[in-house]
């Protein structure tokens, strides 16, 4: 009898513990996760389909964020409902069919799993969609219609994104990266989530004030890097305002220059509970941005391709890196412009095997890749590559050489092949791919550190390439993300716009206080 009583007592304790654990879990805020992100150039003839977003559904989304691992502080602070998260390499405008498909899936999952206390909205901010003028504004508005006006939405963005009044009004909290290159991307996303959880847990609710200041400046990221002045000091000001009582977050967006849309321009925002402090933060940061507009310069020396090659050939610093900027696939270029590679193939220095070693990354050429798979490493290939999408500047090129490496299974490239032509080692891919890490080269039996020249389709060098460089120049090459903005045929951006209109009068940089999302 005594044994039975003890057993019953232990069972009751266990049940009470379970109920207590369940009660605690039920008290946690319920927060959804959603987002679609891409940088889209409307000056590229390319279009982006749904497959390019590699959309994650449900719990697989957690794998994108190290801070969401099991047992982490953020993971334990809420009941998470991950829906759809699609992130694509930058590219051309997104087809309407692709956009509507992903939006439809997102809204369906949100509707099925509600209600929510909050939503983490993870976007880039420079997505262009066929037939839409403000893709992210459209997306958040449609999400708001499903989740309701009371749900607190915290938006995380790239500093090269665009913030319209629609996006700002439907976001209760909003922030962006503070570094370019974006070494603080994960830190910024964690900040957006932590701000959201802090407001939900404290019971403070949505911040009372959102100050929005449009700034008529449109510059490429290669001129606004936070590695150098004035970007470095400008972004360093933000934490000072963030620490002020009554300010939750402040942010500066540079905007995206390679889409011809009215929303593309700089923006400064601050959110918080103190009207005066929020307004002051936004206005002072906007004034600071405007004050240094004439000081922005390219983060590295800039030259024509011929000048860049002459510099590289004369230099004793190895590897000498050249950025092929106009067709940068990580800014929205098609990635298959052949103009630069054609120029290289015509240079006499690279025609013999014992010429200066140059690695070129990269050019899509599915026909050549298929041929390489047939002949194998050591075999000879002769096939066309490039200019399947963007052939405005040069036609497809006939590449003839020896296959020195083949690698299959890459997420973006699918198959990568290295073709040796004289002293050129050309990376040819089945599908376009950016080359940002040393392993991208060494996995193909290439040694970029030992090469005389490494020529990459990129703008400013990402940290790993930057640390590897012996010297560096950025070449003003043609493409869908041409760094010479004067050569772009803008028709829809708001004018006047600096630096296109260099003598424009000082703009009105007073803060616009926006309505709260529950008042829309």
Question: Overview of this structure, please?
Answer:
Helix content is 29%, strand content 23%. With 520 residues, the protein is α/β, with parallel strands linked by helices. It has two domains: 28-296, no CATH class; 302-483, no CATH class. The protein has a nine-stranded mixed beta sheet. It has a six-stranded mixed beta sheet with strand order 4-5-1-7-8-9, sandwiched between helices. Strand 18 and strand 19 (424-429) form a beta hairpin. The protein is globular. Residues 8-13 and 18-24 have low confidence and may be disordered.
Overview features:
2 domains; single chain; alpha/beta; nine-stranded mixed β-sheet; globular; 520 residues; 29% helix; six-stranded mixed β-sheet
Write the layout of secondary structure elements.
Blueprint: H1 2-27, E1 30-37, E2 40-41, E3 47-48, E4 56-57, H2 73-76, E5 79-87, E6 91-94, H3 96-113, E7 118-122, H4 135-147, E8 152-157, H5 165-170, E9 173-176, H6 185-202, E10 209-215, H7 231-236, H8 238-242, E11 247-253, E12 266-272, H9 275-291, E13 302-303, H10 305-314, E14 320-324, H11 339-346, E15 358-364, H12 366-375, E16 380-385, E17 397-410, E18 414-421, E19 424-429, H13 438-442, E20 453-456, H14 463-468, E21 471-475, E22 512-513
Helix pairs in contact: 3-4
């Amino acid at each position: 009898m005594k044994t039975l009583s003890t057993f019953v007592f232990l069972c009751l304790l266990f049940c009470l513990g379970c109920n207590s654990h369940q009660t605690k879990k039920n008290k946690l805020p319920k927060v959804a996760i959603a987002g679609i992100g891409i940088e889209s150039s409307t000056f590229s003839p390319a279009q982006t389909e749904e497959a390019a977003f590699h959309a994650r559904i449900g719990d697989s989304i957690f794998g994108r964020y190290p801070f969401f691992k099991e047992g982490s502080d953020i993971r334990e602070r809420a009941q998470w409902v991950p829906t759809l998260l699609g992130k694509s390499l930058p590219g051309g405008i997104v087809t309407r069919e692709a956009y509507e498909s992903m939006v439809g899936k997102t809204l369906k999952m949100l509707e099925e799993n509600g209600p929510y206390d909050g939503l983490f909205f993870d976007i880039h901010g420079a997505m262009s969609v066929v037939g839409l003028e403000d893709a992210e504004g459209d997306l958040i508005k449609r999400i708001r219609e499903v989740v309701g006006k009371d749900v607190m939405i915290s938006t995380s963005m790239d500093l090269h994104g665009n913030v319209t009044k629609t996006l700002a009004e439907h976001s209760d909290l909003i922030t962006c990266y503070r570094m370019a290159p974006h070494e603080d991307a994960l830190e910024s996303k964690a900040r957006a989530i932590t701000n959201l959880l802090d407001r939900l847990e404290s019971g403070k609710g949505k911040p009372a004030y959102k100050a929005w200041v449009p700034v008529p400046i449109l510059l490429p990221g290669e001129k606004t890097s936070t590695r150098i002045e004035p970007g470095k000091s400008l972004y360093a000001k933000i934490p000072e305002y963030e620490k002020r009582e009554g300010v939750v977050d402040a942010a500066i967006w540079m905007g995206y220059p390679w889409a011809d849309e009215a929303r593309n321009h700089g923006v400064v925002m601050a959110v918080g509970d103190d009207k005066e402090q929020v307004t002051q933060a936004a206005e002072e940061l906007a004034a600071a941005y405007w004050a240094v507009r004439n000081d922005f310069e390219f983060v590295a020396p800039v030259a024509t391709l011929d000048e860049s090659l002459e510099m590289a050939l004369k230099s004793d610093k190895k590897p000498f890196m050249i950025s092929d900027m106009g067709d940068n696939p990580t800014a929205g270029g098609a990635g298959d412009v052949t103009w630069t590679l054609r120029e290289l193939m015509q240079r006499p220095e690279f025609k013999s095997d014992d010429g200066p070693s140059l690695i070129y990354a990269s050019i899509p050429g599915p026909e050549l890749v298929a041929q390489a798979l047939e002949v194998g490493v050591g075999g000879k290939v002769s096939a066309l590559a490039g200019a399947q999408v963007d052939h405005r500047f040069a036609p497809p090129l006939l590449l003839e050489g020896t296959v020195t490496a083949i690698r299959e299974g890459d997420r973006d490239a699918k198959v990568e092949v290295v073709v040796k032509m004289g002293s050129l080692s050309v990376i040819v891919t089945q599908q376009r791919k950016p080359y940002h890490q040393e392993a991208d080269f060494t996995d193909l039996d290439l040694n970029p550190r030992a090469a005389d020249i490494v020529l990459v389709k990129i703008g400013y060098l990402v940290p790993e390439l930057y640390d590897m460089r012996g010297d560096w120049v950025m070449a003003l090459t043609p493409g869908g993300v041409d760094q010479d903005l004067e050569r772009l045929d803008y028709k829809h951006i708001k004018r006047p716009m600096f630096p296109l209109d260099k003598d424009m009068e000082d703009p009105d940089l007073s803060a616009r206080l926006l309505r709260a999302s529950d008042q829309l």
